[in-house]
Every structure is written in C-alpha cells, then in structure tokens.
Design a protein that fits this description.
Helices cover 35% and strands 22% of the residues. The protein is α+β, with helices and mostly antiparallel strands and 962 residues long.
C-alpha cells in the first residue's frame, strides 16, 4: 500500500510535469505568423548571390512589353537550312512535315508584326524511338532566353497493350504499356510545374528566329505558332457564353461511372492501373485477390503528368463531373489537378481541383460561388476528360524556395573559401568585415524564409512538420546576421539545414493521388455514396485477416507444379519480380511452352539452399563474385557447353563477362554493367574558370584552384570499399591485376607500383578526403568534381532537384600515352544470371533457353523500360546488353559519353582466393595513406601475402600452381 505522503509527492510531481509540458508546448508553439519580420522590407535585392537567368527575372525585364492579340503562324516554309532536319511531303497522314532527328538543330526564321510577349505552341508527332519524353533546348534569336527554356519536354502518349489478364491464382496482371503515337500539341511550359501557365517569350517586331536543339528523341513537327495570351473565362462567364437549351430527359437523368483503371491515354508509361485492398469501397473489390481497381497512385505525382478518360453523353446538355479520389500521401497538404474537357480548360476554376489529405475515398467536384456543383456543357456523343498534375499555388512557393537554396549555397561556398570545411572554433574570422554583403544577405534571406513559412501555412491551413526545416534555417540565418562570429562553429549545421531544405522541396513538389472512378451525371442525378460505414470496415478487415493465411507472398504470377517446371529465383525486389514474371508469362512461356515459377528470395538464402540440394535451376541478380565461387565447387554450369553461346555473348562487351570466366568456361550471363564516370558542376567550374580535366595530370593542375576555394574532389576511396580508382590507374599504366593464368597478382610490377604512387598521392600530397558523402557535398558545391559510378546519376536526378541543369557527367580522367591518345581504362562491375549444376538434360536445356531469352536485346529493353515506368528515373536500368543500353532513357549526349566510357572498361577476373586481393590492395593503400609507408615497399609486401593465399586456394581446389 502506498503511503498518503508518497501519493502527495507523486501527485505534486505529476502536476509539475504537466505544467512543464504545457510551458514547453507554449514556448515551442511559435507565433501565428512572422509578418512583423518581413513586412515593409525590400526583399528583391539578392546582391551577387542570386541567378540572373531565371524566368522570373526574364518576366521582370519584359514587364512593360505588351501582349499582342494576333497569333503568328510558322510553317515549314520558314525553316532555314538546319542540321539533322528534313522536310517530308507527307508523314503519318499530314503534309509538309519537319522531321528533326536526335541531336539535330532546327531553325525557323519568320516575321512578327507586333513586339510583345507570346506563348509558343507546337503540333507534333512523337517518332518511335527509345520511348522517353521528347526534350528540346529553345533558342530565340540565337540565345536561350532563360533557365528552363533549355529543357522543354513534350510527352508521348501511352495506353494499355491489352485488357488485364489473370494468372492461374485469380490475380489480375498489369497490362504492358505501349505507345499510342498520334498527332498532338503542347505549349512550351515549365517541366518542373512551378509555373502552371505556359511560358511567355519576348519577340521583337520584324525578323525573328526560333531554334530547337534536340536533347532527347526525334520528333515530327507539323507547325509552330506564337499564340496571343488569352485568359480562360470565369465559371460565370463560361455559363453565360454556353448555349441556352431545353435539356432532354435523357440528359437530365443521365448517370455514368467510368472506372479509373479504364483510362484511355496517359502521358507516361508509369501511369498504369494498380490495385487497392485497403477499402471495401474500391471497385471492383476483393479482399484476397489482386484486382486492378484504381489509377494513379504515387506514380502520378509529377507536375505535367496527365491521365485521360473517354465519356459519352446521350444528348446535348449540362453535366456535372465527380471524381472519386484519395490523397493519403502528404498529410496537411492537397494534391491539385487541372481539368480538361476535350483538350481545353473550360474555365479558370477548373485549373485547380483540390484533393485534401484523407485516409478514405472522397467524391470531389468543382463548385460554383453558391456551393452548387459546376456544370459542363457537352454535345451529344464522345468526349475526353483529362486530369493533369498541378502544383497550383504551391508552385510559386517552391520557386521561391529553390531560388533561396541557390543563394544559400552561394553564401555557404563563399564562407567556405575563408573558413574551410572544419573551421577553427577558437579563431575569429571576422566574417562581417571580409564578407559584409554575405552577412547582410543572410539577414534578408532569413526574412524571405519567414515569409515562405507564412505562405506555406496559409496554403496548407496548418503549421505542419514541413515548415520545421524552413523555421530552423530562418532562425539560424537571423542569428548569423546578428552574431556573425557564430557562423564558423555552426557551418556544418548550416550546410545540413540547406540540404534539408532541398529535400523538403522534393517532397512538396510531389502531388500523388488515387483515382477509383469518375462519375458524370445530369441535373437530376447524384453520384453514389463512397463513404465506408463501420460495418463495411469491420467486414473488410475480417475478410482480409482470414484470407491472409492462404496467400503465398514469395511466388509471383502463374504458379505451376510438375517435374518439368523451371524454378527461377530472383535475388532482388518485389517490383522487379512483378515486372519480370509478367514478361515471363506473356512472352517466354507463351512462346517456348516452358513453365516457370519465379520466387523472390534473399541473397543469403541461395548458398544454403544449394548445399541442401533445394536450390533453383536458375538464379537471377546474383553478385559478381558468386559464379566463380560456385564454379570452383562444381555447383554451376559452364555455358560454353551450348553450341550457340557465342551468339548470346556477342551482345556484351568482353569486360562484362570477364569476371564470370573460369578455367576456359563462362559461368554466368551479365545482367548489368556499371562503371565510373566523372560528375561535375558546370556552374562552379565556370565560376572558378577551370575546364573539365581530361587526364589525371590536368586534374592535379586544377586542384590548387579548387582547394584555394576550400572545395575538394571525390576520388574513389578504399575506405568506401571502392577500388575502381586504383584499378583504373593500374590498367591505364599498362599493368594488370593478375597474370594470364590467374595464378598470381601483378600489382608488384613497375606499372602496379606506379599506379599506387599516383593514386595515393591524391590523398597524401593533395589531401583529398578518404571518407565523404558525395551526393550531399556535390549538391552543396563542396565537391564540384567527383569520379563515381554512373548510377549515381539516378540518385542526383531524384535527390537534388534544386541543381538540375547545373551539372553533368563525362569520361573519367585518363593517362596520356606517348602517341598522344588518352587511356581511360576503368574497371566495371555488375550482377548476373547463373545456371546451377543440373543432371537433368531437359532441365539444362530449358534453363539455357530461359537465359537466352533473358539476355535478348528486346527482353532487356522491355525490362528496363518497365522498371523505369514503375519506379521512375531513380530505377534506370544499367543493362549490360549494349544494344539494349542504347535504347534506354538516357539523353543523346549522355549515351554517347557512356558508350565511349564503356568501350574503355576492363573486366576484373574473379579467381580462387581473389577476396584476398581486394582486401590487401585496400590494406596497402591504407598503409601508404595513413602510415606514410613507401608505396613500393607496401605493394611488394602485400603482393607476397596475396600470392600465398592464391596458391593455397588453388591447391585446395585441385588447381595447378605452376
């Protein structure tokens, strides 16, 4: 029993805790708004820190130029002699078409009657190619008018190849997406979606030129037009201008529900039908089976993406449109959509249909000022309804945030020049005297960020977690402006806060939405109720729980039984598995008659299963070192036993399958091939006045300029388990990791010693970091150059949207040879497909047929495109098949650079005891860098150790050692 006095103390302590918590909440709540911090302050001056080439600055420059009221038509007759462009008398049913190939530059010269601002509209046909969006750089009178005009994108049209099929377990399978090429049109717009209206361009009276430089994909152009700027009418004006008719009963009583998954056209192959099993109100419904019952989802989040449905009405009349949608992705924010009827925005209000955060399906419609559903006038027959992702008012906020990040990174780099990345906390750098403009701009930037916080809160209706990064950075800048001496000690947190702001932009620029159905009704009808009752929810949860005991979540698609079934294991993810199984069932099995069960397994499971005799016939996505390990133990099949193996391997560079060679055999088929390229910040190198280095010597020559500004370079580091740098220099110097018989290492040769000396000098003499976060330091500008795996491109595109257009990649630096050529040899890596040892000849033959199919160009292209359609550009496939690689979504310039670098790749052999090589090459580098040991002595010592282990392992596996 607790004593009364103890109860009193407990009660008192509880009261103190409650009071303290309440006080803490009160203190952390912050003001309702920050207007007093920025009102009356001129926030337009950004000194020399801001960008001068933004669209906003362009509009300011031409703010007094008028808006002519007549269109200007530009025809094929205005085309000048251009590179990679030709005029066709007829193309796809249209006459006099300009066909602009990839890499082309098309220029038109024409007359303009009135000076002013115009929109540009293009009618085009997406020529079949690699299936990615068409991208062009725009030149007006030989100049790119502003940042953003250098990356204009035009979408292709996509649809389902067929109706959804079902596997033998009753689950619906997502149909393959195919291009539905046809003539279409689009305005030149901001592809980021920050500006929802078409771009405005200034043209002077008289002669003008428009140039379109192809960045991606060929295109057929029917016409270009300078369009007079017109505003959409308001809803009231739209109704007033619509026909006044007596509606027929068929129109008044009309009701039609179009399922979301029944969309006819999409702007991206990633916008396909998907499924939802979280609600009993999703149609069609199943608690246990996959039913493709909704459209959109997280994939439908990028501004400019659109989905289109066909509707048919019985009579001329006025109809309301209800969208059954759900936005349960971004708490506290809304997802906006623009509504088009027959390709046109009917009135202003249709430019922003908002879906607030809800966990349940909601029926949303546009309403007039009186709260009544808006009516759309439609004539009898078929029409299209299109919903396009829009950021709405959020676009303006994001644009301000992106400009702010650019200025903040400029501030950070300026301070970096003075303090370095690790400032001395006991030193007064007197930043206010060295960089008084930076300190002043910090105060202004703080006020700008406080203003953005208020705008964000006003937009979302609440002060959510999203404003935390903004508030933190605004407060930090405010303190920096008041106490500049605190800047050095807080520099790291300042950089991290800028990165957090960049990540916030990424999350806020996404606007995902689920669509279950679209309902069109006449004035006497209403949409069905979409709310779930308690009984509905309870019944759904009970059914789902019960059925969860009967599902096999490791197998995908059709599941077969019998001794003739091929068992394939995938050591990858579920998304990859779903795509692959769909391809196997629809393509491989249907053509070959070979039944395949595909199972998802963890990579660590494979070895144990093989030892237990329960392994698969074929394993996919296997690590590079595994095939030789299995071959050493007699657990893998030599693929050279098949007569047509050379036909399969001719589609790969020898470097791609060199790691899978052993004792004259090849034990795996390459799936992917990755290698290094050099990433660089174009803006910073221009600012520093240095060129992109072509050789290691040129890289050394620009290092002083970079390091004088307290920046650095990312070199592949053994501390990050990356040996590509040392191996590149080894092979560029004419060396090799092993002798021809793979019985000993050759790192102790003169070429090897020289490679170690050159490589380690970057860390010992020039102080390059051995541990770093390249992506974050590249986006902040601390590392304007970096040699990294080219797949880093996928990360940067998604992770650092604020530096788009400011960076690129090129070939790795090389070694200058005596004949004047540059040797850019670099090692490559990847994953592969492995056939396990089999005694059944029929199974062996079936396995080989499967591997041949999987290695085919068409299969690899389809898989790569499907993966990118499912997961976006972050999942761009690094196909080892060189023909397939060239058909994936890289730009023309990027493909050329990657092809050239791939031709220089070296395959590093996998040998018995090879794990000792990588381990002790790393140890040798560490000794030289950390203990300052002589490179020659370190290399010679470790070469002896490596060779002893190789000899030991060869004896263990019965291989000759002489």
């Amino acid at each position: 029993m607790i004593k009364p006095v103890t109860k009193k103390y407990i009660a008192g302590a509880a009261a103190i805790v409650v009071a303290a918590s309440a006080l803490l909440v009160f203190l952390n709540r912050g003001p309702d708004n920050y207007r007093d911090k920025y009102e009356g302050v001129d926030l337009s001056d950004s000194g020399d820190l801001g960008r001068d080439d933004t669209y906003e600055k362009y509009l300011e420059k031409h703010s007094k130029d008028g808006y002519p009221d007549k269109d200007v038509e530009i025809s094929y007759k205005n085309l000048k002699e251009s590179d990679g462009v030709k005029v066709l008398s007829e193309y796809e049913g249209q006459k006099n078409i300009v066909l602009a190939d990839e890499g082309s530059l098309a220029e038109w010269e024409f007359d303009v009657e009135k000076t002013g601002m115009y929109e540009i509209y293009m009618e085009y046909y997406p020529v079949k190619s690699r299936g990615v969006d068409i991208e062009r750089k725009l030149y007006i009178n030989n100049e790119i008018p502003f940042f953003g005009a250098d990356s204009l994108t035009f979408s292709r049209l996509w649809t389902d190849k067929s109706a959804p099929a079902k596997d033998n377990r009753g689950n619906e399978l997502r149909p393959t997406q195919i291009e539905n090429a046809s003539w279409t049109g689009a305005y030149f717009k901001d592809h980021t979606g920050y500006y929802s209206e078409p771009y405005l361009f200034y043209f002077q009276k008289g002669k003008n030129k428009i140039g379109l430089k192809a960045v991606n994909e060929p295109v057929a152009i029917k016409s270009l037009s300078l369009k007079a700027v017109k505003e959409e009418p308001s809803y009231d004006e739209y109704i007033a201008a619509s026909p006044k008719i007596e509606q027929a009963d068929a129109a008044k009583n009309f009701k039609d529900v179009i399922q979301g998954e029944a969309s006819t056209l999409r702007s991206s192959p990633s916008l396909y039908a998907t499924y939802d099993r979280s609600s009993s109100k999703t149609e069609p419904y199943s608690a246990s089976k996959i039913r493709l019952n909704m459209m959109g989802g997280y994939a439908w989040r990028v501004p400019g993406q659109w989905i289109e449905w066909k509707i048919s009405v019985p009579e001329d009349g006025y109809y309301s449109i209800y969208v059954k949608g759900r936005q349960n992705y971004n708490r506290g924010f809304v997802s906006n959509r623009i509504l088009y009827i027959d390709g046109e925005i009917p009135f202003k209000e249709a430019k922003q249909i908002s879906f607030k955060y809800e966990n349940e399906w909601k029926s949303v419609t546009l309403k007039d000022s009186s709260g009544n559903p808006c009516k759309f006038y439609m004539t009898k027959g078929e029409h299209t309804v299109r919903l396009e992702v829009s950021l709405g008012d959020m676009g303006n906020i994001l644009n301000e945030m992106e400009d702010s990040i650019y200025r903040l990174n400029s501030m950070y780099r300026k301070i970096l020049v003075l303090t370095g990345t690790n400032p001395d906390q006991y030193r007064d750098y007197k930043i206010e005297k060295v960089y008084p403009d930076v300190v002043t701009q910090m105060g202004l930037e703080s006020k700008r960020l406080y203003k953005i916080v208020d705008e964000l809160v006003a937009y979302s209706g609440q002060k959510g977690s999203q404003v935390g990064a903004l508030q933190t950075l605004a407060l930090q800048l405010e303190r920096f402006a008041e106490h500049p001496e605190k800047i050095p000690v807080s520099l790291t947190s300042f950089r991290d806060n800028i990165s957090s702001l960049g990540t916030l932009i990424l999350s806020l620029s996404e606007s995902p939405l689920d669509i279950d159905s679209i309902t069109v009704v006449g004035e006497n009808q209403k949409p069905d109720n979409v709310s779930e009752t308690f009984i509905d929810k309870a019944g759904h949860e009970i059914r789902s729980f019960f059925m969860s005991f009967f599902g096999n979540y490791n197998t995908l698609g059709n599941v077969y039984s019998g001794d003739d079934v091929l068992n394939v294991w995938l050591l990858s993810g579920r998304d990859q598995g779903s795509v692959l199984k769909n391809m196997i069932d629809n393509d491989f099995t249907s053509q070959s008659g070979i039944k395949v069960n595909l199972k998802l397994v963890d990579a660590a499971t494979l070895l144990n299963a093989v030892i237990a005799g329960k392994g698969p016939d074929v394993a996919l996505s296997v690590g590079q070192g595994e095939p030789v390990n299995y071959a050493l133990r007699g657990a893998a099949e030599d693929l050279t036993q098949f007569e047509d193996y050379e036909e399969v391997f001719k589609n790969f560079y020898p470097s791609a399958y060199e790691p899978y060679r052993f004792n004259g055999g090849i034990y795996a088929v390459p799936e992917t091939q990755t290698y290094d390229v050099m990433f660089y910040r174009k803006d910073i190198l221009d600012e520093l006045g240095v060129k992109v280095p072509q050789t290691w010597q040129e890289l050394i020559e620009i290092l002083p300029v970079i390091q004088q500004n307290n920046m650095t370079i990312a070199m592949p580091s053994v501390e990050k388990s990356d040996l590509t740098g040392i191996y590149s220099m080894l092979y560029q110097n004419g060396g090799s990791l092993y002798d021809e018989s793979h019985k000993k290492t050759l790192i102790d040769s003169e070429s090897g010693v020289k490679a170690f000396q050159t490589y380690t000098k970057f860390f010992t003499n020039y102080g390059l970091p051995v541990v770093y976060d390249f992506v974050n330091r590249f986006r902040s500008g601390e590392m304007p150059l970096g040699i990294q795996d080219y797949s880093t491109y996928n990360t940067l595109v998604v992770f650092a949207p604020e530096i788009r257009g400011l960076w690129d990649f090129t070939l790795v630096p090389g070694t200058l040879k005596s004949d004047g050529t540059i040797d850019r040899s670099c090692p490559s890596g990847g994953i592969c497909s492995l056939m396990l040892k089999q005694s059944d000849e029929a199974k062996k033959k079936s396995s080989w047929e499967f591997l041949k199919w999987w290695a085919k160009t068409d299969t690899q292209v389809n898989f790569g495109r499907e993966m990118e359609s499912v997961l976006g550009s972050s999942a761009r496939y690094a196909a080892a098949n060189r023909e397939a690689f060239e058909q994936l979504s890289w730009s023309h310039e990027q493909i050329e650079a990657l092809k050239e670098q791939r031709e220089c790749t070296i395959g590093i052999p996998e040998i018995a005891g090879g794990y000792y090589t990588s381990r002790h090459v790393s140890n040798a580098v560490r000794k030289i860098v950390n203990q300052h040991e002589d490179p020659r002595e370190a290399v010679l010592d470790y070469a002896i150790t490596i060779n002893k282990e190789i000899e030991k392992k060869r004896i263990e596996f019965g291989l000759d050692t002489k």
